[in-house]
Design brief:
By secondary structure, this protein is α+β, with helices and mostly antiparallel strands. The chain is built from 14 helices and nine strands.
């Protein structure tokens, strides 16, 4: 037993060190990095942390809340948890539990202030306990874009989201957010061979396949890094956009924001992993964004074909990353719900790769792996 405990502690220490390094890298410029001892200090169970959260809420003089009314508000792919709570004035608020060492609430607080100053609608931070990872936020309601989107509502909702995105991007300034640099873009791409191909498909690539995939990655990285740089939400899609009566959309889950390629958030919005639209509609919305971006003075290409090519190349980077993330959520974190979304993301990947000769090696690799899986599947 002592040996098992020792190994477990070593693993926790190693994981916490990695988390500390990532935290140090992704905090806003000029933000102090927490000590690794602080990040490793809280290993309480979810029930214990919920009790701590309720106790903290009870100490707040403003706004006054009713801790006994805490109930789950939404699920999250990370370690963060969200609870809805009744306020003394009859309204509802959102309490966030972001347990150290896995999470750090400071990027959320800082990006909420940065984005809110641009005029887009984000939750207001009403109270915070940074050390323990608790936030109290204004409530943007219960209706996500995903809940509301249909053939009748889609155009209005997407135009609202595009207008908000242009408003946000038009006020971008360097030095305010971590840079979406080559290292981060490449690390995201590597999730695809590690988790989707290796863990999920159990595929082992030969030297030529590895080299071909590396060439595809280099083409994507060269395009992504050459694009104009703006504020990037990184998950600007139907599950993180809320339908509001005023100030639509409400924008959530922005704590990982960076300064990076201008087409990234448009790809997240229009090539959504959770809902699909006809290519003609996607192209129409992309053109409407392009027109608005040019009027706002954003540095998009003056040629719509060149802009759409950037959109597609950025999309392929994101699709490959998301395949890796969804596979990791299942194989590492035990969250199987994302497996249902893999076919749509793979469809996006294939359609984009088929359209450009530069990505023929990727198409060949995917075809080969599909053939191998079919062959294995029919061998008895």
């Amino acid at each position: 037993m002592n040996g098992e405990k020792s190994v477990g502690s070593a693993a926790l220490a190693g994981e916490s060190l990695i988390i500390w390094e990532l935290t140090a890298r992704t905090l806003l410029p000029g933000t102090p990095v927490p000590s690794i001892d602080l990040l490793m200090s809280d290993s309480r169970s979810p029930d214990q942390r919920l009790a701590m959260l309720a106790d903290w809420l009870a100490t707040l003089d403003s706004p006054k809340t009713r801790p006994e009314s805490l109930r789950p508000a939404s699920a999250d792919a990370s370690f963060r948890r969200y609870f809805r709570i009744d306020a003394a004035d009859g309204s509802t608020l959102i309490a966030m539990d972001a347990p150290p060492p896995q999470e750090d609430v400071r990027p959320f607080v800082q990006v909420a202030e940065l984005f809110g100053a641009t005029g887009v609608t984000v939750p207001q931070v009403l109270a915070q306990d940074v050390e323990r990872g608790f936030l109290l936020l204004s409530d943007l309601g219960t209706t996500t874009y995903l809940n509301q989107l249909n053939a009748d509502t889609a155009h209005k909702l997407y135009i609202d989201a595009i207008d908000a995105l242009v408003l946000l991007q038009a006020q971008s300034k360097p030095g305010q957010l971590p840079v979406y640099d080559r290292e981060l873009l490449q690390r995201e791409l590597m999730l695809f061979p590690e988790w989707y191909l290796g863990k999920h498909l159990k595929a082992t690539l030969d030297d030529k396949q590895k080299a071909d995939l590396d060439k595809v990655f280099e083409i994507l990285l060269a395009n992504n890094l050459a694009q104009p740089q703006v504020y990037v939400h990184r998950d600007y899609h139907s599950r993180n956009l809320m339908v509001l009566d005023k100030g639509n959309p409400g924008i959530l889950d922005f704590q990982d924001a960076v300064y990076g390629p201008i087409t990234y958030d448009l790809v997240s919005l229009l090539r959504d992993a959770y809902i699909q639209w006809d290519e003609e509609m996607v192209l129409d919305w992309a053109i409407r964004y392009w027109e608005r971006a040019r009027r706002a003075g954003l540095p998009v290409s003056h040629d719509i074909d060149a802009f759409y090519r950037d959109f597609e190349f950025m999309g392929l980077q994101r699709h490959l990353k998301v395949l890796g993330i969804f596979a990791r959520l299942y194989h590492r974190d035990g969250k199987d719900g994302y497996l249902n979304d893999i076919p749509l993301v793979m469809a996006y990947t294939r359609k984009t790769a088929y359209r450009y000769k530069e990505f023929a090696p990727l198409v060949k690799l995917l075809d080969t792996l599909d053939e191998q899986r079919t062959s294995v599947g029919f061998t008895f």
